[in-house]
Specification:
Largest sheet: 4 strands, antiparallel
Number of helices: 8
Shape: globular
Oligomer: single chain
Distance between the termini: 28 Å
Strand content: 15-25%
Number of strands: 7
Structural class: alpha+beta
Number of domains: 2
């Protein structure tokens, strides 16, 4: 299943997207957001990244559709550029935390942490935390929940620890 790994707003209705297949490109969503289906969306920049789609509340666009829209404005990243360093991971988590605070949207930080945990595996991350059960981790990462901040901190710490172990093994 194609997933959206990273998304950044450029300007207007343009997004820069990175996908799980290694493709990175820009998609202009102007035409989509001029349609009746998206007319009720109040702010284009207030979306959540759900992995398989972007969600604006009552409207969403799948990773496959976004990948199709970005097809002519991007390229595949070389494998070495797809590997996320611990510094990159730290920068993403810091930016997500800042965006969560300034926009009053804890789901941004939750989604950033969820992306890393999906990449490294819940079992490996759980082993690096004080969290007792995988179901509680899945619940904390669900877009339909509002986990405690300390839970998100533990999960981020666990993901950093797994990443550090991975880098040490290289």
């Amino acid at each position: 299943m194609l997933k959206i790994i990273d998304v950044d707003w450029e300007n207007g209705f343009e997004l820069e997207l990175e996908f799980s297949d290694g493709f990175k490109g820009k998609a202009d969503l102007t035409e989509i957001f001029q349609s009746a289906a998206f007319a009720h969306v109040e702010s284009f920049t207030e979306f959540s990244l759900e992995g398989s789609h972007l969600d604006w509340g009552n409207a969403e666009i799948s990773a496959n559709k976004l990948r199709q829209l970005a097809q002519n404005n991007g390229d595949y990243l070389p494998a070495k550029q797809r590997t996320i360093s611990a510094n990159d991971m730290e920068a993403v988590i810091k930016q997500a935390a800042w965006d969560s605070i300034t926009l009053n949207r804890p789901d941004i930080l939750q989604a950033a942490i969820r992306g890393y945990i999906e990449e490294y595996g819940v079992q490996k991350v759980q082993a690096k935390t004080n969290l007792k059960s995988r179901p509680s981790i899945y619940k904390a990462l669900s877009p339909r929940t509002s986990p405690k901040f300390d839970t998100l901190v533990q999960l981020a710490h666990g993901a950093f620890a797994v990443k550090a172990d991975t880098e040490a093994q290289r």
